[in-house]
Amino acid sequence: MTDALPPCPECGSSFTYALDAGLACPECGHEWQPGAGDAEAPEVRDSVGNVLRDGDTVTVIKDLKVKGSSAVVKVGTKVKGIRLVEGDHDIDCRIPGIGQMGLKSQFVRKVAE
């Protein structure tokens, strides 16, 4: 067998084996589909709990000072075409009049389109 199977995502065991169309672990009994864990990312929610997706439009709910500048992102600023990223500032966007920056999802609210 030339293909090495990935370790179990639950317990880390290297003794995984193919089971029908998926993979299984003999040590903990966990079964999963290969590649299924890659597509799962944590949900990003706005300040009121709406799930955000790439390309959504949001509004800023609080005046935000721009670090290293005297500029301020005002309340009600509409930001179109957001992109979700990993990290503390989980929204990457272009704000009109300011430029490219990262925002925290707790300071935005999704706009119903």
UniProtKB/TrEMBL annotation:
Domain Protein YjdM N-terminal: residue ranges: 5-33
Pfam family, one: YjdM
SUPFAM superfamilies for this protein: Prokaryotic SH3-related domain, Zinc beta-ribbon
Keyword vocabulary terms for this entry: Hydrolase
Keyword Hydrolase attributed: yes
MF GO annotations: hydrolase activity
Organism superkingdom: Bacteria
InterPro entries registered for this protein in UniProt: YjdM, YjdM_C, YjdM_N
Domain Protein YjdM C-terminal per the UniProt entry, residue ranges: 44-111
Keyword Hydrolase: yes
Family: Belongs to the YjdM family.
Name of the molecule in the record: Phosphonoacetate hydrolase
Organism: Paracoccus sanguinis
Source species taxonomy: Bacteria, Pseudomonadati, Pseudomonadota, Alphaproteobacteria, Rhodobacterales
